[in-house]
Write a structure and sequence with these properties.
With 424 residues, the chain is mostly helical. Helix content is 70%, strand content 3%. Strands 1-2-3 form a three-stranded antiparallel β-sheet. Helix 10 crosses helix 12. It is globular.
Length: 424
């Protein structure tokens, strides 16, 4: 048996099977989302979304084969080149890209177009893995923290210029990986505190109540701790900064584009404008709720048939699943996603090199963020930010970028023993 054959046998088929299951279920749901009972067409018809998505699935299979036959060292060697390439594409997108709904997201020729922001995710993951594989790289030191932050923030800034806030937010998922690799916990405590304060400040009509709560919490911590002057001053400064942050939020939100302000307000008050800005989420929740336990049946969803939910084949694809397959069908898909994520954590932890482990956790972070935010968005627990459900939503750039992201890691994992030998 050739040496290459030995590594083919080490491919993680469990991850591949789960991936295939999600892609196939997603494809059937894309057909259901655009199904027209009066003018029914075959699921394979290239004039409708399901037929076009099948072509994209075929292209994804070709990409998988190319990834798996390529030398595993190629991804590490080309990591910084790919990162630079997609940064260039992000720079030129606002100038040469195609505008859709006020956003310039895609570049290409004719009908063949891609969204560089989607592919920048795996390129950034490779660049982070390349930078962090150095033995001297230590996230407990500020200079290395700033290096990692710079790699993440450069594409974020370029994507915001398109503007595409939803995709830009995804890059903050890399902080999940950074936590695993040793980023100090204090940053995460601060971030969670700011998120909690933000939610309370936006959800409470009178900020004075929150100010009193902050003052009370600071007073209790001072009273219960050691009465050192430096400690007391630190807590007082923190309290004043938090109060200042609370009162600055209204100003910050007022400077956001109107549609983003509306989405934030609808999150806290779903009945604010049910026929306007709240329409998507309201109809999505109706569709999911009407599915009950077992759903209405495949192609029987009334919310779907009558196009009550806009973008149902892309960002709101999960509500099609909820309406037609109910709680049980939704649970099956959630279990598949969770199983894939748990499996990837297992694969990441068994890697023999830091490059592969860091890249693996980047894959996990991105998939987890998309999975959680997309579903939370469709049930009204998160503002509508327009990010797809991995392997499920309609679109070539989305499917291909997630496929490349995942299968590069599967390829690296299949060569983990060989990579260790190269290091030694």
């Amino acid at each position: 048996m050739r040496q290459d054959d030995l590594y083919i046998n080490k491919i993680d088929w469990i991850s591949i099977i789960i991936y295939a299951a999600l892609v196939i279920i997603g494809w059937f749901n894309i057909y259901a989302a655009v199904f027209d009972e009066q003018n029914a067409k075959s699921i394979f018809d290239l004039s409708i979304n399901s037929g076009q998505q099948l072509v994209r699935i075929g292209a994804a299979v070709i990409m998988i084969l190319l990834i798996m036959v390529a030398d595993y060292r190629l991804y590490e060697n080309l990591s910084l080149i790919l990162y630079g390439l997609f940064l260039i594409l992000l720079i030129i997108t606002p100038f040469l890209g195609k505008e859709v709904n006020g956003q310039i997201l895609s570049v290409g020729f004719g009908s063949v177009r891609i969204q560089p922001a989607e592919f920048a995710k795996f390129a950034t993951a490779l660049a982070l893995a390349k930078f962090m594989e150095r033995p001297s790289f230590d996230l407990s030191q500020v200079k290395y923290q700033l290096q990692a932050l710079a790699i993440i923030m450069i594409p974020v800034i370029l994507i915001m210029l398109q503007p595409d806030t939803g995709t830009a937010m995804v890059f903050f998922a890399f902080f999940i990986m950074l936590y695993r690799e040793g980023m100090p916990q204090k940053y995460y405590i601060l971030a969670l505190t700011m998120i909690a304060v933000s939610l309370l400040a936006l959800g409470i009509e009178n900020n004075l109540y929150l100010v009193f709560a902050i003052a009370a919490a600071i007073s209790i911590m001072i009273f219960l701790g050691k009465k050192k002057l430096s400690r007391i001053i630190s807590f007082v400064v923190i309290g004043l900064l938090m109060i200042g942050y609370v009162y600055s939020l209204d100003y910050v939100v007022s400077k956001l584009p109107q549609h983003q302000q509306n989405r934030i307000m609808v999150l806290f008050n779903p009945d604010l404008d049910p026929l306007g800005v709240g329409w998507n989420v309201t109809q999505s929740k109706i569709a999911i709720g009407s599915g009950g336990f077992l759903g209405k049946g495949y192609l029987e969803g009334t919310q779907t048939k009558f196009d009550f939910v806009p973008e149902q084949h892309t960002d709101f694809i999960f509500c099609t699943l909820g309406e037609e397959f109910g709680w049980a069908g939704s649970l099956v898909v959630i279990i598949l996603f969770c199983s894939l994520l748990i499996r990837l954590v297992f694969l990441a932890e068994r890697q023999k090199t830091r490059f592969s482990r860091v890249y693996g956790y980047c894959v996990i972070s991105i998939l987890l963020f998309h999975f959680m935010v997309n579903i939370a968005m469709t049930i009204g627990l998160f503002p509508v930010v327009g990010i797809p459900l991995p392997f499920f939503s309609y679109g070539g750039s989305s499917l291909w970028s997630f496929t490349i992201l995942l299968f590069i890691f599967i390829k690296l994992d299949s060569h983990r023993i060989q990579m260790l030998g190269r290091m030694n």
